[in-house]
Design a protein that fits this description.
The chain contains eleven helices and no strands. It is an all-alpha fold.
């Protein structure tokens, strides 16, 4: 929502100022310039991505900026409730009691209560992937931290690669605008003996290329990149919250303390207060 609003403000300011200066919006839509800039930009992205996986990730992250940050305070509250339920079940009945929830999380009676978790397949897989080797006895509790840190590092790298590609493409877009402008000047020089109106039209079309390159880079792509980075940071913070709680519980912490470890890792805008967390967990106990 905020991304769309920001883009509307940027575009509205540019077109509005242009019209107030006596320009006509139609003069800014020169198809040939858009084709050159768009084609070069897309070609650069495809070349730098090096594979379908990065392109798909780039598209998903760009679309994700329009949804905004989904890791709200409510999402963390549901996470804490789900973790507490799981940990209490494991404490009462042993770790083996968690196997049915971990092996089939989408059919779990616990996860099914909390839609922000059950619909977040990435987080659900990470949570179950952390508990599964402990339940199966494949790793010792004190070895779990290394396992989950490696996976978190892989997530960060996977998220950063598409951002790096788009960042370099955004930096190149003004240059592609200059390329389009130079091509326009070439056309202008070919018509130098023509009417002054025709020459003026070609020069204006060439300048549109420079204008579009700078506007797209600094007015749209760079702000979107910042939004992608912000979303990625929020996701990793959520995953680290899960990791801290799972590692704490696996190492013998009481369920409430394992959840408290997760709570303390959060920023103030999404962190519930201690009494709020206590009230939530007491409600689950009842």
């Amino acid at each position: 929502m905020f991304v769309i609003l920001g883009f509307v403000i940027v575009l509205g300011s540019v077109i509005g100022g242009f019209m107030l200066a006596g320009g006509h919006p139609g003069h800014l839509f020169v198809l040939s310039e858009y084709i050159v800039i768009g084609g070069c930009g897309l070609g650069a992205i495809v070349t730098m991505s090096g594979g379908k996986h990065v392109l798909v990730g780039l598209i998903k992250q760009m679309l994700g900026t329009f949804k905004g940050n989904t890791y709200s305070k409510k999402a963390y509250e549901e996470l804490f409730k789900a973790l507490y339920e799981l940990f209490m079940l494991g404490r009462r009945n042993g770790m083996i009691a968690l196997e049915e929830h971990v092996s089939n999380p989408h059919g779990s009676s616990i996860f099914g209560k909390y839609p922000t978790i059950s619909k977040n397949h990435h987080a659900l897989d990470f949570l179950c992937g952390g508990l599964r080797p402990v339940i199966d006895g494949k790793v010792k509790p004190d070895q779990l931290k290394v396992l989950m840190e490696i996976e978190l590092d892989a997530m960060e790298n996977e998220h950063h690669t598409p951002i790096s590609v788009l960042t370099k493409a955004a930096d190149a877009i003004p240059g592609f605008g200059i390329v389009a402008a130079v091509l326009g000047i070439v056309i202008t020089m070919g018509s130098i003996a023509g009417p002054i109106e025709e020459i003026g039209h070609h020069v204006a079309a060439a300048l549109v290329g420079t204008f579009i390159g700078i506007l797209v880079s600094y007015g749209f792509l760079n702000p979107m990149i910042v939004g992608m980075e912000s979303n990625g940071t929020s996701e990793i913070t959520y995953m680290r919250c899960v990791s801290g709680a799972v590692i704490g519980f696996a190492n013998g912490m009481a369920p409430v303390m394992a959840v408290e470890v997760a709570r303390r890792s959060l920023s103030s805008d999404v962190k519930p207060k201690p009494d709020e967390l206590e009230a939530m967990l007491k409600g689950i106990g009842k």
